């Protein structure tokens, strides 16, 4: 691996001591923040190479001091929320500061947003609004919304998902040779839920005002979260973040060593929640990136299927270096493995639609033409350049979009036009359209690659 990722892996607990000094300090420190490793790196620097301590010691101390200040802000925020709930069951905090609170080791404390699993979303959301929080992200799947006040973000969860491959099998994920369209059968992944009652029944630990899961359940939560990030090659947040956050893997090592970690309880939870895929993947990732699998389950063996979008799955190569960098994925390497078009075999005909991709200077325009009429309640589209992209939704004549576009607008003739600023070199883009009924079930979905060359307009159906 490169010099930057070598230092990151060492900070997270890998044995190999960094020797390559050829890296940009600013780039590395930014990645230390994204991997939430400031505390771990500060501790390891005290016994690490002198040249590394000289270059990074000061900035890392400042970074971790800022993290600890944010921890205090998070603790005060949770204390006010719990007090505001009165007699209502307090929420359980997962991820973030949970491992550091359980172990009592301040070097393991890491902060992003505050993830709270609630017994009842209504009273918790009412409390947040009463305390001056504003909703900054709408509900989505298991998330009841994001609420922000003075830089503190609260993610309210109805439950925590434990994903698995379910009916997805690697053998089904090779496109047929010489076929223009790859009709991919629907292979539903599995998804079990960890709800507030399970977290509480499992024996939560309270540190000051904060309630966190016991080490066994928290380890499964971290495995599930990391596995979900890895398998889903699409992220609606479009934050600059790597596929694998090393702090989550490093936390697993700390949790397994916790005095309250019970191997038999952990294995029983894995079986009950059908968390085998997530736990085996986490064992593989920890072995590959940190040199050892800490979990009492045999590590999985790749390749691991990955979800492109919606219910589209593919067998794609994994560049271990890229898992730790925020560059997302290289479409030039992905699209040759997908064929010219993928259509989800739902049993319903796929509507006729068109896509045009053209460049003008440093701007690329993607125009999707939708059929004149549709019986679908919702039409969705996705545009992905690998490092940035957009998901748009058209429902009731109203268009909304999230992502990295400059503009997204609905034109006459039911055309959706998106504009992006991208590098001048030629490139690849994935474009998809799907239809859903009122319940959100997919009626049809199509995904296809498109390309352009520098300064050349390209139009494709």
Provide the helix percentage: 25-40%
Radius of gyration (CA) equals 23 Å
| Mean pLDDT value | 88
- Total strand segments: 23
- Helices and strands: which structural class? alpha+beta
Give the strand content.
25-35%
Strand order of the largest sheet: 7-13-22-21-16-17-18
Distance between the termini: 40 Å
Helix tally equals: 12
Outline type: globular
Biggest β-sheet: count, sense, barrel?
Answer: 7 strands, mixed
Low-confidence stretches: 457-461
Q: What is the topological layout?
A:
Elements lengths: L2 H10 L12 H10 L3 H8 L4 H36 L6 E3 L3 H6 L10 E4 L3 H10 L3 E4 L5 E7 L2 E6 L1 E6 L17 E4 L4 E6 H6 L3 E3 L2 E3 L2 H17 L14 H11 L6 H10 L3 H15 L15 E4 L2 E3 L16 H4 L7 E4 L8 E7 L2 E7 L8 E7 L4 E7 L2 E6 L3 E5 L3 E7 L5 E10 L5 E11 L5 E3 L1
Parallel strand pairs: 2-5, 7-13
Antiparallel strand pairs: 1-2, 3-4, 4-5, 6-8, 9-10, 11-12, 13-22, 14-15, 14-23, 15-20, 16-17, 16-21, 17-18, 19-20, 21-22
Question: Can you offer a commentary on this structure?
Answer:
With 461 residues, the protein is of the alpha+beta class. Helices cover 31% and strands 28% of the residues. The protein is built from 12 helices and 23 strands. It has helices at 3-12, 25-34, 38-45, 50-85, 98-103, 121-130, 196-201, 215-231, 246-256, 263-272, 276-290, 331-334, and strands at residues 92-94, 114-117, 134-137, 143-149, 152-157, 159-164, 182-185, 190-195, 205-207, 210-212, 306-309, 312-314, 342-345, 354-360, 363-369, 378-384, 389-395, 398-403, 407-411, 415-421, 427-436, 442-452, 458-460. The strands form 6 sheets. Strands 7-13-22-21-16-17-18 form a 7-stranded mixed sheet, with no helix packed on it. Strands 1-2-5-4-3 form a 5-stranded mixed sheet. A hairpin with a 3-residue loop joins strand 19 (407-411) and strand 20 (415-421). Helix 1 (3-12) crosses helix 2 (25-34) and helix 3 runs antiparallel to helix 4 (50-85). The longest helix is centred in the N-terminal third of the chain and has 36 residues, at 50-85. It is globular and about 60 Å long. The two termini are 40 Å apart.
